[in-house]
Amino acid sequence: MHFGPHLLLAALEGLVTSAVLALTALGLSLVFGVMRVVNVAHGEFFMLGAVLAWAITTAIGGHPALGFLAALVIAPLIVGAIALVAERLVLRRLNYNPEATIVATIGMLYIIQQLALTFYGPEARPVEPPFSYRILLPWFGYSGYKLSVIAASALLLTATWLVLTRTRIGLVMRATQYDSETAQAFGIPVGRVYGGVFALGAMLAAIAAVLIVPISQAHYLMGQDPLLLSFIVVIIGGLGSLRGTVVAAVLIGLSDGIISMFFSPTLAKIIATLLVAMVLVFRPQGLFGTRSR
Amino acid sequence: MTDKNGFFDLSRSTLTRRTALKGLAAGAGLGLAPGFVRYSQAQSSAPIKIGFQSHRTGIGAAYGRWYEKTTAAAVKAINAAGGINGRQVEVIIEDDGTDPGRGAEVVGKFATQHKTDIVFGTLFSHVVIGSAPAAGENKMPYFVVSEGHHVASTKLNRYVFQPGITDVKSQIQSMAPWIAANAGKKVTQIFPDFAFGYDHRDYLPPALKAQGGEVIAQIAIPPTESSFTKYFPQIPAETEVIYHVMVGPAVLTFVKELGEFYGSNRPQLFGFIDSLEATDINSPGLEFLDGSHFWEGSPRYAQADDSEAQKAYRAAVGIDDNGAAVGDPKDVSTAAHMFGCWETLYVVKKAMEDAGYKGPEDRAKLVEATEALTEFAEGPEHPQGPKTFNGKIHQCFGIQNISKIEGGKLKVVHKTKIEDGLYEAEGDYTTQAL
Lengths: 293, 434
Fold this sequence. Notes:
The complex is a heterodimer. Chain A is an all-alpha fold. In chain A, 74% of the residues lie in helices and 2% in strands. Chain A has a domain at 24-220. Chain A has a two-stranded antiparallel sheet with strand order 1-2. In chain A, strand 1 (134-136) and strand 2 (141-143) form a beta hairpin. In chain A, helix 1 (3-35) runs parallel beside helix 5 (144-166) and helix 3 packs antiparallel against helix 8. By secondary structure, chain B is of the alpha/beta class. Helices cover 35% and strands 18% of the residues of chain B. Chain B has 11 helices and 17 strands. Chain B starts with 16 loop residues before the first helix and ends in a 19-residue tail after the last strand. The interface between A and B is large, with 40 and 37 residues.
C-alpha cells in the first residue's frame, strides 16, 4: 500500500481510539478534578458498560439498531447507579481520603471484575453494530460504524462541555472543584455533588464502552487498557481540564495509530510512557492544567 | 494522613488471651477438617489425586472452562468403570490465571500442599513453559494439553508429557501440502507474538517450501491487542492465502476487521480454529469467513461419518451437534482442543496401570511407563482418532482435520494421515536422569 492511503488508515484508526479514549479519560479527569479521588476502578465501569450493552441487546433482539440505542441509554444509567451506590457505601465513609480511596477503588476493581467473570463468564461476546455500512475507498474498505463513533464521541464531548460551562450543575461542580470548603459555606451540597460526579464519571466510561463494543467485544478483562491509557491522557492533559483531556486523547490516539502502523505497537506504548515522564518532569500540572494550590 | 480509626495505634490492640485461644482452637479444627482425613488402608483405597492446572481466569478462561467440563466427564467415566488400579480418581483444580508465574506456583502448590500424584491440563504455551521447571524440580509428572511444540522440542524436562494432542510443528507439516495444493502458494502469516505463535512462525515456512509454496510476509501481533486494522496494510498485495492463528478475547474483532478491510475481494483464508474457539461462527461480522478453511483437532460440528466413540464422547462431555453445550446453543465449546484432556487422562490411566502405580513414590516408574507407550488405538478412550506416541520426545502424533465453513457450519473436507506429520526427533528426554 502507498504512503498516502496508509497514513489515512492510520489516522482513521487513531481517531477512533482517541474518540473512545477522550470520553473514558474525561470521566477519570472529572472524578479526580472535583473529588480528588484517583478512581482505579474506572476501567471496570467501562467494562460494565460493555457487558451490560451485550446483555441489553441480547434481551431486546429485533433490529440491531434498536437494541444498541436502548443499550446506549440504559447501560450508562445502570453503571451510574452502581457507581453512586459505591460512592455512598465506600468512598464517603472514607471521607474521600486520597490514600484510602485508592486502596478502596482497587478493591472495587477486583470485586466488579470477578463478579463479571462469575455472572457473565470468560467469553468475549459480540454486539451487533446498529448498522453495518462498509465505506469503500479506492485502496481499502473501512467500517462506517467506526466513523460514526468518532462523530458520536465529538457530540458527547461538546455536550459535556456545555453542561460544565453553561449550566447551573456545571457551575456547582466547578465551584466544588475550585474550593469545596468555600462551596459548602455557600450552601452547595458538596456530598451530593461528589455522588453525582462519581456517577457521571462512570457513565462517561460506560457510554464509551457501549460505543466501542460493536467493534471489540465485551470481555471481563477489557477494562485494563482503557484505565492505563486514561491515566496517561489525564496526566498529559492536566487533571480536571476538559480541554487538556481531549487534546491529550487525540494526541495519544493518533500517535498510537500512526506509530504502531508504521513502526510497532510496542514503540507506540514506549513513546506514550516517555511522554508521561517528560510531562511529569517539565510540566507536572499537565499541558493544560493549573498548578494546584 | 491522620489515623482517625486508630489502625496503626498499637496500644489499642484488642488481641486478648481469649481471642488468641479461639484462634488456636480454630486452627486445630481446620487440621481435623475433612480434607485431612487419613485413609486407614492408605494405598489401597485413597483416591488418585490429579492436580488440574486450569486457566480459570485470564485470557485462557474460555478454554479453561471447557477443559474442566471435559476432564470432569472423563473422570466420571473412568471412576464409573472402576477407577485406576481399583482406586477412584479425584481432581483438584487450581487457577493459574493463564499466567506463567502463577502457573509455576500452582505446580509447587500441587506438589507440596495437595500432594497430588500428577499435574495435568495446561493449555497456553507460555504457562507450560513457565511451569515446566517447577514440575521438574518437584519431580512431578506434568501432562499438558497444549498443542505447542515446546514439549516435543525436548527443551523442557523429563517430567513433561503431551500424549493427548498433536504438536503444532506436526500439524503444520501435515497440512502444508493441502494448503499449497488447494489454497495458494504465496502465504502471509498472522500470528500471536508469543511462544505458540512462534511455533507457527518457525515451522510453516520450511513446510510450505517443501511443497513449492512460500511465506511472503509474517505479521506478529501482541496477544493483548484489541484492534487489528492497523496491521493489515502490511499484508502484501500479491498474497494468495492469509494464514491466521490468533488467540485471546479479541479474535472476533480480528476477523471482523479483516472483513471490513477486504470485503468480498479477499485472498484465500486458512486459519487455526484457535482464532474462533468458544465463539459461534455465526456471530455478526463473521459472514466474511464463509468458504474459508480451518484446522480443527477434533471437529466442532458433528460429522456424517462420526465414529460411535466420537458420538459417545460428545454425549459424555455434553455438547450438541453444533459443538455447543447441550441446552445452551450460545455456549460454544473449545471442541478442537478439549478432546486432548479426555485422551490424556486415559493415557495416564494406562501408564499408571502399566507401572503398577501406588503413590507419589512411584512417580519415576510412571514416567518410564508413559515413555514406553507407543500407540493409542481409536476408540472410546481415544475418540479423536488413532495416535502414535514417541516416548523419546514425550509427544503423540494424530490425524488433523481441515474443515470448510459452509452454510454456517464447519465441514471436514480433508483428514491428514499420521505419517504426514512425523518428523525427526530433536532430542531424547529418556537420557535425562529421573
